[in-house]
Design goal:
By secondary structure, this protein is of the alpha/beta class. Helix content is 29%, strand content 11%.
Length: 422
Amino acid sequence: MKLSRNLLAGASLFALSCVSALAQQVTGVLGSPGATITIDGRQLPLPPPAFGGMIKEKASESTAWWAPRVVPPKGAPNVLLIMTDDQGFGAPSTFGGVVPTPAMDRIAAQGLRYTNFHSTSLCSPTRAALITGRNHHSVGFGVVGEISTGFPGYDSIIPIEKGTIGTILKANGYATSWFGKNHNTPSYQSSQAGPFNQWPNGMGFEYFYGFVGGDASQWQPNLFRNTTAIYPFQDNPNWNLTTAMADEAIQHMKQLKAIAPDKPFFVYYVPGGTHAPHHPTPEWIKKISDMHLFDQGWNKLRETIFANQKRLGIMPDHAKLTPWPKELPQWDTVGELEKMLFIKQADVYGAYLAYTDDEIGRVIQAVEDLGELNNTLIIYIGGDNGASAEGMINGTPNEFTTFNGVPVPVKAQYLWYPFWGS
């Protein structure tokens, strides 16, 4: 079972709630250590059952009794929920873009392609809505976490009674995990001092490998395994989180299926790509640069993507491009120095997208290699909130210049030209 691209936040929860609505199933002899039971899901967590044994003065006259372990119904699917970051609708090849994204193409070809997706246009609010199935204001994320305020709906706190999809599936017997970006922990609780109830581990995700906050360097991230900071990049200059988190997720799934083959997994896989900073490997930068995808400039690129979208059937034949905004320069009015810089920036962005999709492809392939592809619901969302304008009109080598309202002149940006993406 495979779905692709833009899925309404509540829809994923609805699809999974059907699992717990089935008739109760019991395996083994109730009271024995190996007995299991499925639940209807109407109350979570499941209230502890009354002791069903007998206690007398002598152990020899007493009867032991174990509460049954909660498991999902037989045949309950694994779930792989993938979402990239700050990726525009027209960026991937799956939706008419020129950047090759074969992993997303694969899921779209074998499943459903959605063209209508409601997001909040901001990172942590969209993510809060996705993992809870609720309006972002009702779970404390009316704004991104870094600018949260002490008012209801804006405090970056997900109330315990509004449980995440991790909490729901964990309580139904799933193995739950979160890999990549965590933008739903309050910034004032993001250190190793905790508290950790608003970390993934406290929100129903048994295993977490990723970074806390809006973004991170892929070369030297603020990386955590569960709630412990780790530094695998030290003395390892070729290490990159985009590959490392795919390795980690693959190993995690393999281990689960080796130890408990009948236990379904829920993997929430949310890489940093393509949020700034754009950090593909040099090999990917060369690969995309050699394809000359962006050399003709943004006007021509826009027309190409639009034509591709009509060809794919995700844009009506009668649709027309909106007029070019007066505030933006036409490509043929831009100087040669600017063109060289902008093509470089676009190549690095395209490389980051292609690299991210390639690693996602490895994770999907690992599911197939485990023999689980036909029993896994795969949801691949291309971007949590659309393309980002954090680079301002001319791009920037550092997004904090944008946050401080400081545009970086093109000539000054050439100081970093050879190192873009590093």
